[in-house]
Amino acid sequence: MLDYETDVNAAVPLLNGMGFIFGLLGVVALFIQQSLTMFLPLLLPLVVCCVFCTLLIRSQQKPKTDETMATSSPVRIDVI
Asked: Which residues of 23-34 are buried (b: 16+ CB within 10 A; e: fewer)?
């Protein structure tokens, strides 16, 4: 029976390891893509709520005091 000899300097184990890593990265990328397509519609109400809350807060801010209104001109004319 012949002795089993291995080539320790061969690139096959390195390529197998790199293929395994790239395969895992592909699976992770596929999982992220599928998760985004599933959870993206759930983010829409959150975005709409944030926009409406921001508009509500901005519209309810206190007006400027009378002192600053008296110093500025109420009519503005732009000359081109």
From this structure: eeeeeeeeeeee
DSSP state letter for 61 = S
pLDDT higher than threshold 70 for residue 68: no
Report the distance separating Cα 80 and Cα 77, nearest Å: 10
CA neighbor of 50 nearest in space, from 38, 40, 39, 58: 58
Element (H, E) at 28: helix 12-59
Q: Is the pTM of this model over 0.85?
A: no
C-alpha–C-alpha distance, residues 40 and 35, integer Å: 8
HSE of 8, CA atoms in CB hemisphere, 13 A: 0
Name the average pLDDT for the chain.
80
Residue 27: CA count within 13 A, CB half-sphere: 6
